[in-house]
Design goal:
two-stranded parallel sheet
Length: 162
């Protein structure tokens, strides 16, 4: 007996009802102080990663997703570089559906932004904070999710002077 094609999810609401959070997984948590040593060289004498100019504090947050059978993984990776150090956290929320489904790209993207990112974000923030504390550097604060950006709140009306 052959199984038919996977059910195609028709809305974010349907996917939210089908997908059960089963685990949160850390793929990487790392930190490195950058004071006191030349960070362009590694311990084995090879060239290290470029950190950018001193004082060029920045955060790069990336979102990745993968669907295989009845499992959906949404990963959030943050790289935070400050004048004191470099911190990385990579966290995934793993979801399972009762049976294999096909998720249109637009719905998968919306699910990642609205459902999965709020799950991974506290783990990401905690990992970055704890790495900084362990290194003895100032803990950077990742911004909270902008609910307007992910569509959970309508955009604020533009203020026009009277």
């Amino acid at each position: 007996m052959t199984a038919g094609p996977p059910h195609e999810v028709s809305s974010l609401e349907e996917l939210q009802q089908l997908a059960e959070l089963v685990d949160v997984v850390y793929y990487e948590v790392s930190g490195r102080r950058t004071d006191g040593f030349d960070t362009s060289e590694t311990f084995d004498g090879t060239e290290g990663e470029a950190e950018g100019p001193a004082g060029d504090d920045h955060a790069d947050i990336r979102l990745m997703q993968r669907m295989e059978g009845n499992r959906l993984a949404v990963r959030t990776r943050a790289l935070v570089v400050t004048s004191e150090g470099r911190l990385v956290a990579d966290v995934a929320a793993l979801f399972r559906t009762p049976e294999p489904v096909r998720i249109p790209a637009a719905i998968a993207k919306r699910f990642a932004a609205v459902i999965a990112t709020p799950v991974t974000r506290p783990y990401l923030r905690e990992a970055i904070h704890q790495s900084a504390v362990k290194l003895g550097i100032a803990a950077p604060l990742l911004p909270v999710l902008d609910l307007e950006d992910i569509g959970l709140l309508p955009p604020a009306p533009a203020h026009t002077p009277s």
